[in-house]
Amino acid sequence: MKVLLTGADGQLGQAMQQSLVGHDLLATTRDSLDITDQSNVQTLVRQFEPDVLINTAAYTQVDAAESDIDGAYLVNETGPLYLSQATSETGAAIVHVSTDYVFDGKSKKGWLESDETRPLSVYGKSKLAGEQAVRNTNPRHFIVRTAWLYHYSGQNFLRTMYGLADRDEVRVVDDQRGSPTNADDLAEAISRLIKTDSYGTHHLVNSGSASWYELTREFYRQLGIKTPVIPVSTGEFPRPAPRPESSVLMTEQHTGIELPSWQQGLARLVEQIRLSGWSD
């Protein structure tokens, strides 16, 4: 299968490259493909003629987006629109990666693909706009929503917690709940999804749920770190962008694609850290 990958230098992009070994893969970064340049996008898609394009490129600075509205929408809506239009013209499928932030976080039961979207932040609104652009332009689309993503590469919440482990204690929010997801597990799930014709919207996350506090506590436990983890409220760490209180994603799709538990996903990361270290 010929696969065009955008955002190849990001967490999910790097994981996707590993999961797509054996395919005819063209992995692009912003330096080689600016997804907000329509001409550039059209030219590359027509030249490479992929069977599927996987878009992992995104504006992910949640707080910065509150004051950089145009920048967030340019990358999260306009870019996906150009990618979707170009793939539709050549008959290729498109995978567009989205987020739990398209929901308002008020459901205690978790979120299914068919639940009403109501984003709270500019970031969430821009990602929802990107979803809608893809749906409206390419019928052969996979919208993949995920949550609380982390990976051995790049900066993420767990790397930050690892760097704080030498403190006397670590204070972590315990009133936000989500679906911690290892990018390696997500990448493997996407690599299976593109072999199907199950077009539409999919929630792909490691199973189960945790708060940021519970995630940190389990992370330290698996690493053998004894630093006390103290649960606190969101109010102790005010941020420009509102966070969904509940970001637990569930699925009503019947693809047979299941990710491991979040504890197993975490163990996969911990093993990588033990083998190769992890500088902060």
Topology summary:
Blueprint: E1 2-6, H1 11-19, E2 24-27, H2 38-48, E3 52-55, H3 69-90, E4 93-99, H4 122-137, E5 141-146, E6 149-150, H5 157-163, E7 170-173, E8 177-178, E9 181-182, H6 183-193, E10 200-203, E11 210-211, H7 212-223, E12 229-232, E13 246-247, H8 262-276
Parallel strand pairs: 1-2, 1-3, 3-4, 4-5, 5-10, 6-9, 7-12, 8-13
Antiparallel strand pairs: 8-11
Keywords:
three-stranded mixed beta sheet; Rossmann fold; 280 residues; 37% helix; alpha/beta; globular; six-stranded parallel beta sheet
**Approximate strand percentage:** 15-25%
The named CATH superfamily of the domain at 2-154 and 180-207 and 248-260: NAD(P)-binding Rossmann-like Domain
| Side-by-side strand order of the widest sheet | 2-1-3-4-5-10
CATH architectural type of the domain at 2-154 and 180-207 and 248-260: 3-Layer(aba) Sandwich
**Number of helical regions:** 8
Parts with pLDDT < 50 across at least 5 consecutive residues = none
Along the chain, the helix and strand elements come as EHEHEHEHEEHEEEHEEHEEH
Structural class given helices, strands, pairing? alpha/beta
Number of strands: 13
Care to describe what's here?
The chain has 280 residues and is α/β, with parallel strands linked by helices. The protein has a domain at 2-154 and 180-207 and 248-260: Rossmann fold (3-Layer(aba) Sandwich). 37% of the residues lie in helices and 17% in strands. The strands form 4 sheets. Strands 2-1-3-4-5-10 form a 6-stranded parallel beta sheet, sandwiched between helices. A 3-stranded mixed beta sheet has the order 11-8-13. Helix 1 (11-19) packs across helix 6, helix 2 packs parallel to helix 3 (69-90) and helix 7 (212-223) crosses helix 8 (262-276).
